[in-house]
Amino acid sequence: MTEIVTPAQRAAKPVRVRRRVPTRTPHQAARAARGNGRLGGPLAALPWALPAFAFVGVLLVYPFFRSVYDSFFEDNGFTSTFTGFDNYARLADDPIFGRSLLNTLMWVAGTLLLPVLAGLLIAVATHRTRFGGIAQLVIVLPYAISAAATAVLWNFMLTSDGAVNQVLRGVGLDSWAQTWLLEWPQNTLSMIVASTWQATGLNVVLFAIGLRAIPQDTVEAAQLDGASGWRMFRYITLPQLRAVTVVVVGMAIVNSLKAFDMIWILTKGGPSRSSETLALSMYREAFRLFHIGYGSAIALVLSVIVVASSWMYLRRQMPEADARTANAKA
Amino acid sequence: MGRTVRHLFIAGCVLLWLIPLYLLVVNALTPAAEYTGKPEWTVQGFDLVENLRTAWNVAGIGDSFQASLLYAVVCGLAAVLIAAMAAFAVVVLPIPRPAFWFWLIYSGTLFPLQMFLAPLFGLYADANLYDTRLGLMLIYAAWAVPFAFFLIRNQMTTMPPELTEAALIDGASFRRIFWRIHVPLMKAGLAAAFIFQFTAVWNDLLLGITLSRSPDVQPVMAALTTLNNAYSSTGPPVILAGALIVSAPTLLLFLVFRGLFLRGVTASAR
After folding, report:
1. Which residues of A touch B245 (CB under 8 A)?
2. A70, A330, B55, B204 — which has fewest CB within 10 A?
3. pLDDT value at position B78?
4. What digits encode the pLDDT tens for the residues A152-189?
């Protein structure tokens, strides 16, 4: 409708592209069957894949396995001794790990609730309205600036003399003004709000793409049947947005588990490690306290949670679309 | 939703989203020396240039800015080229076991960065790559390849194989097919992948603070963090000016190439 439509419609295209499993395409199979040497044999393609393989293999795949291996050692940066599963056993008794896990859960719940819901509401409210495009643009703007810059800005707003408390005192809610970042749990909650401010924009864009993809016929048919307002939203819009919602929620889970920049800049996980998430605990253990093995164990736990949750979620949400779609998830 | 409620809701949201941005700009304008310790809500003076200069020179954002620009441009381009080559190999050429190659390269994006950090640090210390620009460029390129590969491969599978076959019959070499057919036809997709990787490298904090220390090697986000830690000594106007500086490239990219930018980032949502 407005000026945002054209680029965003182009943006809609890749979302709907059918993903394929990386197998031989029919013409490749046919070529292989013919067995002619026109393509220079099966090894001719290898040089093309080699640079990617070298980079990823040396700098990502090898460190990954090394990290798994290291998690079985007690390592302080100088000496290392094999301790088997001791690091994992320690995790169970570590109160900081427990708090860290709890904070991570709060991040997952919070970023599922706020940015997804706000994104959906804003997208629906701005859909097909005169200034909807401009409103969307304003809300996406923070997404274009980094999490680190967002954190710096919100640090400025959330300090004891910050803008948030100023506003609260200004409107007579003095008792609401507080040290946002210095006490648990409001430090974690404030940071979730700050990240909502940054992340909602992308969800708005995604939902807007989904809304535009709803066939006009469906909407008109529902209107003829007398649906409008809430009923229209509940029985027509929401089910039609299912595919986008799966994507948005899946992404929210993964991103909230990995949350680091915002917390590192706003509280450094403090005070006294009360606002750490798993991503932060790993960093502090490995690089501030030099418990490399213990840090690696936390990283592995985090990795397992990330991969397992996104896999399970996608499995549940698209049983009909089979494993390959789930696998293709970023 | 009633029309009025709807408009009020939108207006409220826009306001909520604009207030922090407004505060960012207004307080970055405030002369650092006159800052009272509390956020200003009205323009108190116009000292933006001076604040930017302080952040750029004294706080060392300038050095990091140049370093980050180098990382983001070079590693973004390198990653897109390497990924496009790998996608070409996996999709178009008769490589044995394409699924294996796909998963090998793609697996690099599945795990949180924390999983690679500690061994990388050890590796870099041993290879004398710690705190060097080369070291950061290597890891940024490696980190950017898997996802660029995923994006480009998905797009390449939609290209009709007849194009390649026709070119082969005409006697074109692989290199010629890649540069003359695939790269030109996928220009928009490659550009979107580049913008995505540029943004990712530019916004990285974790690799930066782990693998570097000196101001001329550290990427901008790490420099901004350092500046922020010196909160009381530098004063908020300078820090916010720093935040403006580090946001400028991605913001500019967003405003100029909005279609490509959104296509790049929304592609990450698949």
Report:
1. none
2. A330
3. 95
4. 888 888 887 777 877 787 777 777 777 787 878 888 88
Element (H, E) at A73: strand A73-75
The CATH number linked to A240 is: 1.10.3720.10
Q: Does the beta carbon of B55 lie under 8 angstroms from any beta carbon of chain A? A: no
Question: Mean of the per-residue pLDDT values for chain A?
Answer: 79
How is residue B162 written in tokens? Answer: 């007849």
Distance of alpha carbon B246 from alpha carbon B220, whole angstroms: 6
Reported confidence tier of residue B233, pLDDT bands at 50, 70, 90: low
Give me the residue from B10, B111, B269 closest to A303, CB to CB. Answer: B111
Q: How far apart are the CA of A253 and the nearest CA of chain B, in angstroms?
A: 12
Evaluate whether A286 touches A296 at the Cβ level (below 8 Å): yes
Closest CA to A198 of A238, A253, A240, A256: A256
B118·A14 Cβ contact <8 A: no
Residue at A214 is within a domain: yes
Separation CA B14–CA B20 (nearest Å)? 11
Identify whether A2 is part of a domain.
no
Q: Give yes or no for a contact between A104 and A185, defined as CB atoms under 8 angstroms apart.
A: no
Residues near B160 by beta carbon (within 8 Å), at least 6 away in sequence: none
Spans in chain A with pLDDT lower than 50: 1-24, 30, 32-37, 320-330
For A113, the token pair is 């609730």
Is B143's CB within 8 Å of A60's CB?
A: yes
Q: Which residue has the tokens 């057919």?
A: B181
For A205-260, the pLDDT digits (tens) are 889 888 888 888 888 888 888 777 788 888 888 888 888 888 888 888 888 888 88
What is the rounded distance in angstroms from the CA atom of residue B115 to the CA atom of residue A60? 9
Q: Kindly state the greatest CA–CA separation across chain B.
A: 75
* Residue A157 belongs to a domain: yes
Q: What is the pTM of this model?
A: 0.84
The vertex-B202 CA angle with A307 and A115, nearest 5°, equals 50
CATH architecture of B58-268: Orthogonal Bundle (1.10)
A160 within domain boundaries: yes
